[in-house]
Design a protein that fits this description.
Largest sheet: 6 strands, mixed
Helix content: 10-25%
Oligomer: single chain
CATH architecture of the largest domain: Beta Complex
CATH class of the largest domain: Mainly Beta
Shape: elongated
Radius of gyration: 32 Å
Structural class: alpha+beta
Number of domains: 2
Strand content: 35-45%
CATH topology of the largest domain: RNA Polymerase Alpha Subunit, Chain A, domain 2
Length: about 220
């Protein structure tokens, strides 16, 4: 048994030592490669939250920011899976123009070990506006309508929350297009409203009934 052990460890010991050394070097290179750090730039969305119930973001200088990040190669896939995003709380602000600094602490879903080296832009300019409740007439959009067709909508108007700056421009809210021949066939069709501006908030149901006025 002793002879066998000696043969294993001592026979061609230089070659075995060299192989062991070579394996160590390969392992070291692989390990260093996995932890080598490189810089990447990614664009992430900005989420505004905690707004007062009667305040809205009327405009923003940007809805995305660019991050420069130092990422170990080993964490590259983790970064792709987590999808970082910026969450800015606006609970303390009132209507008007404000400048909000972008802080690293507001950026979520960054894997541990990834370093944020630069944020661009470093601040965001926001215009906050008051929301006002308003009743707005519904405008049925009919394809192929003729003068003799008397269109009825139900309800005739709906309630929306509207930024005060948009009030003078908000005259009607259109529906999705309805074909007049289909309406004549079915007598009544349910369709949806199409809000003309994404900053409007519909209070009532978005579904509208359109029918032809019955002849007496």
């Amino acid at each position: 048994m002793t002879e066998i052990i000696k043969k294993i460890f001592l026979e061609d010991w230089k070659g075995k030592l060299f192989s062991l050394f070579l394996a160590f070097i390969i392992w070291l290179l692989i390990s260093l490669g996995e932890w080598s750090v490189y810089e990447v730039k990614i664009t992430i969305p900005v989420n505004f939250k905690d707004l007062s119930h009667n305040i809205t973001v009327f405009s923003a200088s940007t809805n995305n920011i660019e991050l420069s990040m130092k990422v170990p190669k080993k964490l590259e896939q983790d970064l792709k899976r987590t999808s970082p995003e910026l969450n800015i709380s606006l609970s303390q602000f009132k209507a008007g123009q404000i400048i909000v600094p972008v802080s690293r602490k507001d950026i979520s879903n960054v894997p541990k070990g990834v370093e944020i080296s630069r944020i661009n832009p470093s601040s965001i300019v926001l215009n906050l506006d008051k929301l006002v409740e308003k009743f707005v007439p519904v405008e049925p959009v009919i394809k192929g309508k003729e003068e003799m067709d008397k269109i009825v909508v139900d309800p005739k108007r709906v309630r929306v929350l509207c930024p005060s700056a948009l009030l003078p421009l908000l005259k009607t809210i259109p529906t999705e297009p309805v074909d007049i021949y289909e309406l004549r066939k079915k007598k009544e069709i349910s369709t949806s409203l199409l809000l003309p501006d994404p900053r409007l908030i519909l209070i009532d149901s978005k579904y509208i009934k359109i029918s032809l006025e019955r002849e007496e």
